[in-house]
Amino acid sequence: MTKPLRIGVAGLGSVGAALVRLLQRRRADLRARTGRDITIVGVSARSRRERGLDLGGARFYDDPAALAASSEIDLFVELIGGADGAAYDAARAALSRGVPLVTANKAMLAAHGLELGRLAESHGAPLAFEAAVAGGIPIIKTLREGLAGNAVRRVSGILNGTCNYILSRMETEGLPFEACLADAQRLGYAEADPTFDIGGFDTAHKLAILASLAFGAKIDVGAISIEGIQSITLADLAAADELGYRIKLLGVAERSEKGIEQRVHPTMVAKAAPLAQTMGVHNAITIDGDAIGALTLVGPGAGGDATASAVAADICDIARGDVAPAFGRPIDALEEAERVPMQRHEGGYYVRLAVVERPGSVATISTRMAEQRISIEAIMQKGKAKGVTANEVVPVVLLTHATTETAIREALALAVADGAVRETPQVIRIERD
Amino acid sequence: MTKPLRIGVAGLGSVGAALVRLLQRRRADLRARTGRDITIVGVSARSRRERGLDLGGARFYDDPAALAASSEIDLFVELIGGADGAAYDAARAALSRGVPLVTANKAMLAAHGLELGRLAESHGAPLAFEAAVAGGIPIIKTLREGLAGNAVRRVSGILNGTCNYILSRMETEGLPFEACLADAQRLGYAEADPTFDIGGFDTAHKLAILASLAFGAKIDVGAISIEGIQSITLADLAAADELGYRIKLLGVAERSEKGIEQRVHPTMVAKAAPLAQTMGVHNAITIDGDAIGALTLVGPGAGGDATASAVAADICDIARGDVAPAFGRPIDALEEAERVPMQRHEGGYYVRLAVVERPGSVATISTRMAEQRISIEAIMQKGKAKGVTANEVVPVVLLTHATTETAIREALALAVADGAVRETPQVIRIERD
């Protein structure tokens, strides 16, 4: 048997604690799988408080970077979080000493992934981050290895369980956004400041990592157009249901001759699609590749045990000497892809309008659409309450065939300027195959 | 750059041809991923007929074993098929010379997987078979590596696209089994002799491989209880729909203190479960692990391109020196698990009975159930046509709470013997969480 793999773990929150327990519980099986004992020899955390964990003889480090730089460890696990600061310092300390790094830190990878990848390469140290995207779902390995023979055309996914929980409950129980968000906070799914989740930023970090792996391109989080779910109303969910869709917050990255388009926004997904059927806190990712067609993975996107499962998989790979490049190819082989901005996005649109109830309103809207060569697939006017008098508004929902973001925005702005539409129109992109 | 990886491909059917094209199309990307050129230097097929493939300077071998034993190749791809004969001879020829083997041959692995694994180990040659189960879906890698930190409790899957196509069309279009089978044959989904698919044997081969990887146990295809879909009627599908289920042919392997239970049979799956939502020729597998919870993969389970995607992934792993043991652990570490026979299966049951229309029939059935301590969850008596006279039969559907296979079979046999039930009862197991 090869000598033991000595691990340092920085961060003993829910994931760190679950990892400690997992490595103990699965010790014999992990030894059988990797041919070595995997032992935690050092830990670091913000405090030394009792956590009910059996840390054996592991030495406690107040400074995670000191643990990362210690000659006692063969592998460093970073579970601190945050793009910069302690996590980033410790990550660099490990890699620059040639120590393999396993991290769950999506924010750090989105911001510094390329630099860390380069550091890993130049020091011959593996860098692995299965746990950084979609919790326990092995999506990194799937893109990096399982689909290595494919030219990937699109990656689309539900990457934030908090948003999916909120949208699922709004839809199934008819509860308003605020009530569902409050419940998510009470259940520990959402932070006290939920902006990072519901604003789509967490999804964007994860999407940037997936796009890099999928397309062999440099991480480019700045290229992502980001919209959150705050504007989604029960009226939208009801209309979606009637039209055969569900509304999901998706991260979508697409490759075309134009370049790479990356976007995070609420999306109309046909009910039959696996992504539409993913409810609650689960995550799901669909990958479209030229050889495989469509592959979907569905599972827990967060939680201590599920995320520790992903960390453990990375540790096993390194323990048995697997040497896949962090982003599937050497950093220098990653492409600097052309950004396709959101204005050039092409697709179908769902539009909900507060139409002024007077003769000619709908004709005006139709004309503005026609001027932009937008073809309307469906129009739905409902809930026109009795007693609506002239110049009150009625809700109208439109679905368009494929058009561009620029065209739809222009048509709607003009319809508003014409006085045919009051309030800002609700615009939700439709994801089709 | 490391020296090129020279490949021999035996079998130029739809998968072999797709692989040849994939390796050409993705040449540059595969080089970036693995650091080497991947070149086909030898091929073997039943005939030398023109296939419209650019085989470059590859040498043609009439005998696949001669190709496998050639010193010109660094890796042998077996796409011949069949448990024995040419495929098996060639596989052994490669491994016993220390040449890595990539195979899509589930029948061979189910029959000889352990022996081939041992041969691979003793000669230090990788053995990889991602393409053997569920086509393009990277389920082997997921079990072997992605979920390495988990104690897997259950693997359940739709592993045969032909059966799922037939059941999906029966359900959605109300067409009888024979018509759907004929269409499947016309579309090339089913063989002229469809027994291997619809009888559940193909699913069993795949299940045996998955169970070995999931539980770290020796392949034991003889332990599998196998039922096909031939007995499923439109009446069953309609009753399932009404009760909130879909009927799927599942392969299920479960680990408990008793041992390992492996079974293939038509199954009632709750509509909300990802497996129930998998329609048409797609495959899907759900894995229940102690750390991750439930993970589901959905994708194409067959087809030349999708299967070639899986073969290419294995080739890439080997090209870059990945060394995972074929079954996740050394062969000698694989457990000889206790078989849990079908009679000891515990679960809920769907039962459709032709009940003799006379006073006391239902009471007799209820009594026989009660004697076996079977608790009835739901009972549905429908379609009692007008004009039914004494001693005609009416269809009755029962759902039971968890019981054992022995108990339900005994209760039904006695009810038939009592004269309360005519014809053989239809019994379908319910899969619950």
Features:
6-stranded parallel sheet; 35% helix; 433 residues; Rossmann fold; alpha/beta; Alpha-Beta Plaits; Dihydrodipicolinate Reductase, domain 2; 26% strand; 3 domains; 11-stranded mixed sheet; homodimer
Brief overview:
The structure is a homodimer of 433-residue chains. With 433 residues, chain A is of the alpha/beta class.
Write structural notes for this entry.
The first copy, chain A, is α/β, with parallel strands linked by helices and 433 residues long. Chain A has 3 domains: 5-132, NAD(P)-binding Rossmann-like Domain (Rossmann fold); 139-300, Dihydrodipicolinate Reductase, domain 2; 345-431, Alpha-Beta Plaits. Helices cover 35% and strands 26% of the residues of chain A. Chain A has 14 helices and 17 strands. The first copy, chain A, has helices at residues 14-25, 27-34, 64-68, 86-96, 106-122, 139-146, 161-173, 177-186, 195-198, 201-215, 234-243, 304-319, 361-371, 405-417; strands at 5-10, 38-44, 59-61, 75-78, 101-103, 127-128, 152-158, 225-226, 245-256, 259-270, 282-289, 293-300, 346-356, 376-381, 393-400, 403-404, 421-431. In chain A, the strands form 2 sheets. In chain A, strands 7, 8, 9, 10, 11, 12, 13, 14, 15, 16 and 17 form an 11-stranded mixed sheet that branches. Chain A has a 6-stranded parallel sheet with strand order 3-2-1-4-5-6, sandwiched between helices. In chain A, helix 1 crosses helix 12 (304-319), helix 4 (86-96) packs parallel to helix 5 and helix 13 packs antiparallel against helix 14. The model of chain A has no long low-confidence stretch (mean pLDDT 95). At the A-B interface, helix 1, helix 2, helix 6, strand 12 and helix 12 of A face helix 1, helix 2, helix 6, strand 12 and helix 12 of B.
